[in-house]
Amino acid sequence: MICQTVRKGSECFFMKADGCSFISGSCSPIIDKCDGCAKVTEVNGAKYCVCYPDPESRWTNDGICTMATHIKRDVEQIKRKINPLKASKKGIRG
Predict the structure, then answer these.
(1) Does residue 62 lie in a domain region?
(2) Mean pLDDT calculated for residue range 48-53
(3) Residue 1 domain flag
(4) 80: pLDDT confidence band, cut at 50, 70 and 90?
(5) pLDDT at 81 over 70
(6) SS3 of residue 78 by DSSP
(7) Is 80 domain-assigned?
(8) Rounded to the nearest 10 degrees, how much is the dihedral formed by the CA atoms of 32, 68, 55, 16?
(9) Beta carbons of 7 and 47 less than 8 angstroms apart
(10) What is the domain extent for residue 30?
(11) Which sign does the torsion angle of CA 80, 86, 90, 92 carry?
(12) What is the dihedral of CA 69, 73, 79, 83, to 10 degrees?
């Protein structure tokens, strides 16, 4: 639906017939770590993320946003997050 709160006129998947369904009731502006991302849109002089209504919470969980297009992830970083118990079971199966 079309946003009627902060990003008026933009498509928003949190908008419902009875208003914004996001917890705080409106989207938050991006933080400094989001600068340069392709998912950022500017509305009325403020920049917002197209994917997440609260971009700051996306960066606090793992220290990196999963939808960030301006961050290149190293393959070694991804491999380190494998659960050792699951890795040992995969090794047994061959």
Answers:
(1) yes
(2) 82
(3) no
(4) low
(5) no
(6) helix
(7) yes
(8) 140
(9) no
(10) 15-93
(11) positive
(12) -50
Residue 77 has pLDDT above 70, yes or no: no
The reported pLDDT for the residue numbered 84 is 79
| CB atoms closer than 10 angstroms to residue 31 | 16
Decide if 10 is inside a domain: no
Q: What is the pLDDT of residue 89?
A: 81
- Cα–Cα distance for residue pair 27/76, rounded to 1 Å: 34
Q: Which two tokens stand for residue 39?
A: 């998912």
- 77 SS3 class: helix
Single out the residue of 58, 56, 27 nearest to residue 42, CA to CA.
Answer: 27
Pairing of strands 15-16, 40-43: unpaired
Looking at the chain, the whole-number percentage of residues with pLDDT higher than 70 is 86
